[in-house]
């Protein structure tokens, strides 16, 4: 594997792993503030980030490589946590995954391209979900209660029932985790 794509996989793995932990802790804060739907959203997205991290890790070579990552900010109130989550998802959608995908494409690293693309498509959904939740929290209300389903193969997240087939990776309905 080319070193630049390998480094991008390591960085993406680190970022998704940190996002998972942040979102689990953010869910606890939202739960304490009695924003149960926001807490459920954070837990569902945390699960999706675990799927992304796993996909990146599975595509890395077995040798160790340096991993750099930005340290997460501390815990704030749920509105602050939603703002930070939205910023992180926006960075992934607008900057990180488009560049990582293009580098992998240029270097003809098809497995990395797939992993980056699956995460990129999913982060667009997370961005929208967090924006909706932040708008509700800013208005002093919890998010709308909606069932969330996360594809266990690619992390794609959907409000409501799981589709018969995942639109990102093609996994069947039984491969979704409900939150």
What's the layout of helices and strands?
Elements (H helix, E strand, L loop, with lengths): L2 H30 L3 H23 L19 H29 L3 H29 L9 E4 L5 E3 L16 E3 L1
Antiparallel strand pairs: 1-2, 1-3
Summarize the structure.
The chain is mainly α and 179 residues long. Helix content is 62%, strand content 6%.
Keywords:
three-stranded antiparallel beta sheet; Ferritin; 179 residues; 4 helices; mainly alpha; 6% strand; 3 strands; single chain
Provide the structure class: mainly alpha
SSE ordering:
HHHHEEE
Tell me, rounded to a whole number, the average pLDDT.
91
| Largest sheet, spatial ordering of strands | 2-1-3
CATH architecture assignment: Up-down Bundle
Distance between the termini: 36 Å
- Rounded to the nearest angstrom, the radius of gyration is 16 Å
Unreliable residue runs? 64-73
* Overall domain count: 1
CATH H-level superfamily:
Ferritin, core subunit, four-helix bundle
The main β sheet shows up as:
3 strands, antiparallel
Q: Roughly what fraction of the amino acids lie in strands?
A: 5-15%
Helix content: 55-70%
Write the CATH fold name: Ferritin
Quaternary organisation:
single chain
Number of strands: 3
